[in-house]
Recover the amino acids of this structure.
């Protein structure tokens, strides 16, 4: 199955796609950020630790996961406001339902929706992404854990255009947001994971100075998705 969550110690980085989510706030407006697919709350822990003012709203379809996370992964502490007013608000329900929204729109939407270790099939359809994008405020962005490649890709393989083509979620995002999609590939030991970000490519120098130093080199790896 999918590794649901790794609880970071203070300022520990997971060296996985959760770290990428922490880099989102500097490239979106101030405002609430949605976590679609909360799991045990690893991303929420890390984001509130780095950005203690952030208002997170997380959707999780499985109430059992939320109960376990509150009991064993410290999620209930995230539901209390920090000194700077940030907190996690938990919603139990379908992250893709039209009601999973907020008045005025989200500044950012983080999508991490898996079932049985695979990205939800709906996320391989451009229409789904257009619906999710309607929930953003102006200049808001979506950041997505796109999972791995459909076909085995050797880790030495290039990071050229050919490599993202093997990821059906990125393909769907590219057709939903032509010229407005960026991606990067994370190679963690044995697995390859793709992450995508909607909107124009941010100024990478500026972005890298606005995130914790551990993430600075990593935000410079984003590239625009060019459809040939």
């Amino acid at each position: 199955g999918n590794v649901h969550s790794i609880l970071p110690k203070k300022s520990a980085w997971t060296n996985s796609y959760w770290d990428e989510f922490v880099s989102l706030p500097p490239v979106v407006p101030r405002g609430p950020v949605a976590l679609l697919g909360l799991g045990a709350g690893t991303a929420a822990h890390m984001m509130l630790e780095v950005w203690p003012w952030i208002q997170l709203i997380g959707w999780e379809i499985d109430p059992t996961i939320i109960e376990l996370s509150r009991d064993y992964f410290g999620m209930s502490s995230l539901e209390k406001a920090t000194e700077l007013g940030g907190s996690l608000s938990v919603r139990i329900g379908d992250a893709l339902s039209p009601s999973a929204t907020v008045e005025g729109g989200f500044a950012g939407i983080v999508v991490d929706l898996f079932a049985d270790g695979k990205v939800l099939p709906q996320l391989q359809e451009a229409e789904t992404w257009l619906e999710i994008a309607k929930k953003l405020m102006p200049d808001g962005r979506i950041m997505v854990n796109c999972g791995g490649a459909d076909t085995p890709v050797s880790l030495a393989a290039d990071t050229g255009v050919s490599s993202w083509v093997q990821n059906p979620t990125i393909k769907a995002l590219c057709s939903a947001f032509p010229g407005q999609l960026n991606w990067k590939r994370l190679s963690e030991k044995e697995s390859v994971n793709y992450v995508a970000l909607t909107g124009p490519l941010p100024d990478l120098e500026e972005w890298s100075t606005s995130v914790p130093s551990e993430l600075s080199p990593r935000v410079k790896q984003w590239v625009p998705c060019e459809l040939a």
Remarks:
- Residues 6-10 have pLDDT under 50 and may be disordered.
- Residues 17-224 form a domain with the Rossmann fold fold (CATH 3.40.50.150).
